[in-house]
Design goal:
There is one protein chain. By secondary structure, the protein is of the alpha+beta class. The chain folds into three domains: 2-168, PAS domain (Beta-Lactamase, 2-Layer Sandwich); 228-315, Helix Hairpins (Orthogonal Bundle); 324-466, Heat Shock Protein 90, CATH 3.30.565.10. It has ten helices and twelve strands. The chain has helices spanning 2-5, 7-64, 78-88, 163-214, 228-277, 284-315, 328-338, 340-345, 364-381, 434-444, and strands at residues 91-95, 110-111, 127-132, 139-149, 152-162, 324-327, 349-354, 359-362, 387-395, 398-405, 448-453, 459-466. The chain has a five-stranded mixed β-sheet with strand order 2-1-5-4-3. The relative contact order is 0.06.
């Protein structure tokens, strides 16, 4: 029973069942058509023979009127009838009066009684009908043709052939169709077996690969040369398995990074709190420094947890934005002032270039968060004495905010990874969440985040929002 449920067994059986059904329907239709064709051909043949024989007897009767039948003018005899039947292969009868030829009672033909052939031979028309003789059980296809002499119908010639002779040709056809059908079935069975192997083998391989993926093994092999849609499915399945492996690796790295980022400030907080509780630190100045460190690390934890929550909401599409009028020039002034002190402390050439003062409809807090993340990333990547610029421009129906630095730059193969969570990319010691959140937020606001960079010459991040 399990074998019958297998696709490799059911598919050939379905193919064969379809072929058998089509063959049976075709055979029935063919036999029916051939029966009609054979019957029609039999009637055409009988019609020609009846017409010719009726003409023969009509000519003999016309020649016999007013003359004694002599040796040179004889009516068709029994011998002539037998000769005609041998030549045509059919039976010849007549209907009409007992005496057809003048001066001669017999004409060599068997006369059919009116009960055997209840047809109107007086009409002078050729008719087709089925004939059953009283002393026989056989049925005949028959055609009657009138014998016309001097514009009068005096009798009718009946030519008949057994229905079994016509049916035998149909039976011969049926036997040949059976042989051809058996050979065709064998060919179809071989073809269906071949096609099922071509189709089922990649399906079974994909099934095994799906079982492996479900068990957590993403290093699976998929059929490479599957036909048609199966080939496309195999390619997409391989890509899916690779993406799942990548997602699992990212998830593992994400958890490790989160645990590391949480453990570092917690360790510092725990150390300072323990020192204060145990009385190790008694100097008021050192106590104040420890409390400041605890507060700074607590704020770091708060930012980290907030970033993780924001990223989770963005990934789950549960992040909502508000629509309000946002003065972009004033917003960038606010973001610029946040890092002015750090720029002075590190001797960074920190400047802003506002070419426009557009007002857009967006979420001002989220725009400020994106710009702040870009500036934070730039300060982390720029060495002391470097250069950072914040720009604003309006062009082609959009607003462009640029943050440019002269840090080490970003290699081309690392640019996409830079926007993944906990991928700091440039060795700046950050958590790696800022750019990931910035890109997701820019998409949620209907904009995009662009990156231009050259190794050794810094990077430029651009936030493009609809104006």
């Amino acid at each position: 029973m399990l074998a019958l449920r297998s696709l490799r067994v059911r598919l050939p059986l379905v193919f064969l069942a379809g072929i058998l059904l089509a063959g049976a329907i075709t055979t029935v239709i063919s036999i029916r058509l051939f029966q009609d064709f054979a019957r029609n051909q039999a009637y055409r043949k009988l019609t020609r023979e009846a017409h010719g024989i009726a003409q023969l007897y009509a000519t003999s009767i016309n020649q016999g009127y007013g003359n004694q039948v002599g040796p040179d003018r004889r009516a068709p005899t029994q011998y002539a009838r037998q000769t005609l039947e041998l030549a045509t292969g059919d039976k010849i009868y007549y209907v009409g009066p007992l005496q057809l030829f003048p001066g001669q009672k017999g004409v060599g033909l068997q006369r059919l009684p009116s009960s055997a052939a209840p047809i109107d031979w007086h009409s002078g028309k050729s008719l087709s009908f089925e004939l059953t003789l009283l002393h026989q059980s056989r049925r005949y296809y028959a055609v009657i043709n009138p014998i016309v002499t001097r514009n009068a119908t005096i009798a009718g010639i009946v030519v008949a052939t057994p229905k079994t002779d016509v049916s035998s040709s149909v039976n011969d056809l049926l036997a040949r169709l059976a042989v051809a059908g058996l050979l065709g079935l064998l060919v179809a069975a071989g073809l269906s077996w071949y096609l099922s192997r071509r189709i089922v083998r990649p399906v079974l391989q994909l099934s095994d690969a799906a079982d492996a993926v479900a068990a957590g093994n993403y290093d699976v092999s998929v059929p490479r040369r599957a036909p048609g849609e199966l080939g496309h499915l195999s390619e997409r399945f391989g890509e899916m398995a690779a993406r799942l492996a990548e997602v699992e690796e990212l998830e593992r790295n994400f958890l490790m990074s989160v645990s590391h980022e949480l453990r570092t400030p917690l360790t510092a907080i725990r150390g300072h709190v323990a020192a204060l509780l145990e009385g190790v630190v008694t100097d008021p100045e050192l106590t104040a420094q420890s409390l400041e460190t605890v507060e700074a690390e607590a704020q770091r934890l708060e930012r980290l947890v907030g970033d993780i929550l924001d990223l989770a909401k963005l990934d789950a599409h549960r992040f909502t934005v508000t629509n309000e009028e946002v003065d972009m020039a004033r917003l960038l002034e606010q973001a610029f002032e946040r890092y002015r002190d750090e720029a002075q402390r590190r001797a960074i050439d920190y400047r802003q270039d506002l070419d426009a003062e557009p007002v857009i409809v967006s979420d001002g807090d989220r725009v400020l968060q994106i710009v702040g993340n870009l500036l934070s990333n730039a300060f982390q990547a720029t060495p002391d004495g470097g250069r950072i610029s914040l720009g604003l421009a309006k062009q082609n129906g959009s607003v462009r905010v640029t943050v440019e630095d002269n840090g080490p730059g970003i290699p081309r193969d690392a640019r996409e990874r830079l926007f993944r969570p906990f991928e700091s990319g440039r060795g700046n010691g950050g958590t790696g969440l800022g750019l990931a959140i910035a890109r997701e937020l820019s998409t949620a606001l209907g904009g995009r985040l662009e990156l231009e960079s050259e190794v050794g010459r810094g990077a430029r991040f651009s936030l493009v929002l609809p104006a």
